[in-house]
Amino acid sequence: MSESQQKAGTEVVGVTSLYHEHEEWHVNSGEATIHAKRMPGRFRTIKYITESFWLVFFLGAYLRWNGKQAILFDIDNRQFHFFSMTILPQDIWMLSLLLLLLAMTLFAVTSVASRVFCGYFCFQSSWVDWFTWIEEKIEGNHTQRQKLDKAPWDMTKLRLKLIKHAIWLVIAVLTGISFSIWFVDAFDYWHKLVTFSLPVIGWVVLFMFVVGTYILAGFMREQACMWLCPYARIQAVMGDAQTILPAYDESRGEPRGKIRRGQPVDESKTGDCIDCYQCVQVCPTGIDIRQGQQLGCITCGLCIDACDSIMDKIGRPRGLIRYASLDELEGRPVKKLYQHPRTWVYVAILLLALSGIVYGLTHLGALTLRVAPERQPLFVRMSDGSIQNKYTFKVLNKTDKDLYVKVSAEGGIKDQIIVDADQKQLAIHGKATAFTVFVKAPEVSIHKEVTKLQFRVENVEEPTMAAEYTTMFNGPKQ
Ligand code: SF4
Ligand code: SF4
Question: Is the pTM here over 0.85, yes or no?
Fold first, then answer.
C-alpha cells in the first residue's frame, strides 16, 4: 500500500490506514508474543466490569467479623469459617453440593454461550488482560510494542522492559499473598511476611504463585488457554448448533474486499467485510474468527467491538461479527432456551444442589449430637431393682471456643433419671468430644421392651445453643 493511498484512505473513510497495520500482522502459533490492539466497545466494557470481580480475591480476606477473619479456610484446624458460621469436615457434603452447583453452572453457561467464562471471568484471561494493559501503558500501543520487540537492545528498551517486568512481579507477588491469606489470618500473614518469619510452606506457596502468575500471565498468555486448559478441550462437547458464540456472518461478509477513496464500490459484488483485519488485531488469542470457530476462541467478544466500530465508520449495519448460533447463521430455526431439554436438566440439578446447600446452611447448628446405646449388654439390672442403660455421647462443638454442656432427656420411662445429670461436660471446640451417660428407670415403670428416648445437650451458658438426638431405652422382655 502506497503512502498516498494510506493518507487518502485515512482522510476519507477512516479505515484505510488500518490496512497498513495488518501488513505487519502475524498470527501467532506460540512462537511469538501476541500484541493485541485494545479498542473500546460494549464487550470491552463488560470485560472490565466482570474482571473487577477479582477485587474480591485481593481484598475479601481482609474482611473482619466479630474480631476475626470473616472468611477463612483454616486448613490447620480443618475448619471453614464463613462469618459466624463454622463448617467442619462433617459438613463436607455441603462442599460437594457447592462444587456440583459450580460445575453445573459452568456446564449450563457453556452449553448456552460457549466459553463465555473464559472470556470474562477466568483468572488466566483476566490476569493476561491486566498484564497487557500495563504493557501498553509502558511500551505503547500494539504496533509500538511489536516494533520494540524487534528493535535492538538499547537503554530505552532496557528501561521500558525493566519497568514492565518489575510491575508484573509486584502483581505476581500480590497474587501469591492474596491467595495465601484465605488460608491463614491475613494480618498475621503480613506480619510474618515482613518479619521474614513465615513457615517454609508459606514461602513455598508464595514462590509458586509468584512464578506461576509471572510466567502464565506475562509469557504464556493465550498459549495457556490453548494448550494447558482442560476446559478448552471439554467445552466443545457441551455445545451444539444452538450454542451462541462470536461468529462471522459469512453470507453477509463475503466476498470480502478492501474499499478505497475515489474507487467505486460495487456492493453487488462485495460483501460487508472490508478485510481490515481489525477483528484479528484485537483478538487476545490471535485468531481470525472469519476462518470459522476455533479452539483458541475464548468468546470474549472483542472482535465484535472491533468490527462494529468499522461498520459504523463505513456506514453499514453492525453485527457482521456477532454472538450467534450456527443454526441462526445458516437460517435454521432457533429454539428458545426453555425449549431445550438440557436446560431443564441443568435447572433441576442446580435447584437440587442449591436446595441442599440452603437446607444445610439453615440447619447448621453450633452443636451436633450423636448417641450410641450400649449393645452388650443392652441393659443392666441394678441392686435397687432399677434398669440402667449406658450411652456413648459424641458432642461436636463447631464454635471457636470450648464450652460446657448439660444433658437432659424427653420421653422415655416414667420416673427415669439421668445419672449425674447435674454434671457439666466439657465440649472441646472444633472437635467431637465423647463421654458416657447412664439412664436408669424403675423396672415397674417399664412396660415395653424398647422405649423411644430423646436426648438434648445444651450450652450451659447459652441454652438456645443445643442439639438433640432420638434413640431407645432398652428394658427386659415384657
Ligand atoms: S470482519 Fe469486520 S473487522 Fe474483521 S476484517 Fe472484516 S470488516 Fe474488518
Ligand atoms: S475470536 Fe473474537 S471472541 Fe474469540 S477470542 Fe478472538 S476476539 Fe475473543
Answer: no
